[in-house]
Amino acid sequence: MSSTANPTLILASTSQYRSELLQRLRIPFAVVSPKVDETPLTGESTLNLALRLAHAKAAAVAKKYPHAWVIGSDQVADLHGAAIGKSGNFEMALAQLQLMRGATVIFQTALCLMKGGTQTTLCIPTEVTFRKLPDSVLEAYLLTEAPYDCGGSAKSEGLGISLLEAIKSDDPTALIGLPLIALTGLLRDAGFVIPPKNLKQNQINPTKRISRKIIYD
């Protein structure tokens, strides 16, 4: 009889957004900080930066946990070829939104699934067009949602959607930080059963949190 237990899974990220997204798949996982230097290389494109960091995060954790499947992910917002990072505060966030006003920003969300010498790395781009809104609207949004910990300073899963004119992507979860459509395919290829066969009725409630373990290295 084949086992219904899934392999060990680790998310190489301390992002609460990625953790919340991964919980949608209803499989237990651990969270480990990858501690990777995210400084861009000279002349590095936003696409290559996202791919390199996703791979580096997975590799850093996989080295310590060689028997587990490790997920690494990174997102870089690209405005006319320049990377837009996390603002960190109101002033920087407002400056970012002013720059992106009426423009289309490409969010490069890279994903890497790794175990030992087996790995797959890919990137899901998302085109986001921002509305032409006055500073008063941008300021009101920032004071309401304070999205200073996300690239682009606008949370599409929250009130930030009101700043957007259009979103184009093959995976709606990529913009939030973890492309679940692509990830589900990779995990199934790696032997994970999704949804888990032993999922009980009382675990189907989408508001119920799936157990996870946070490991601080």
Structure, described:
- Helix 3 (90-100) packs across helix 4.
- The relative contact order is 0.20.
- Residues 201-211 have low confidence and may be disordered.
- The radius of gyration is 18 Å and the shape is globular.
- It is of the alpha/beta class and 217 residues long.
- The protein contains five helices and eight strands; from the N terminus they run βαβαββαββαβαβ.
- The chain has a single domain (9-190), classed as Alpha-Beta Complex (Maf protein).
Helix content: 25-40%
How many DSSP E strands? Answer: 8
List segments where confidence is low: pLDDT < 50 over at least 5 consecutive residues.
201-211
CATH architecture: Alpha-Beta Complex
Termini gap:
37 Å
Q: Which sheet architecture does the biggest sheet show?
A: 8 strands, mixed
Top CATH class: Alpha Beta
Overall average residue pLDDT: 90
The succession of helices and strands, N to C, reads EHEHEEHEEHEHE
Computed CA radius of gyration, to the nearest angstrom? 18 Å
Number of domains: 1
Overall 3D form: globular
- Named CATH topology: Maf protein
Tell me what portion of residues adopts beta-strand conformation.
25-35%
Structural class: alpha/beta
Provide a short characterization of the protein structure.
The chain is an alpha/beta fold. Helix content is 26%, strand content 25%. About 5% of the residues have low confidence.
List the helices and strands and how they pair.
Layout: E1 9-11, H1 16-22, E2 29-32, H2 46-62, E3 69-79, E4 82-84, H3 90-100, E5 104-115, E6 118-130, H4 135-145, E7 164-168, H5 180-189, E8 212-215
Parallel strand pairs: 1-2, 1-3, 2-8
Antiparallel strand pairs: 3-4, 3-5, 5-6, 6-7
Helix pairs in contact: 3-4
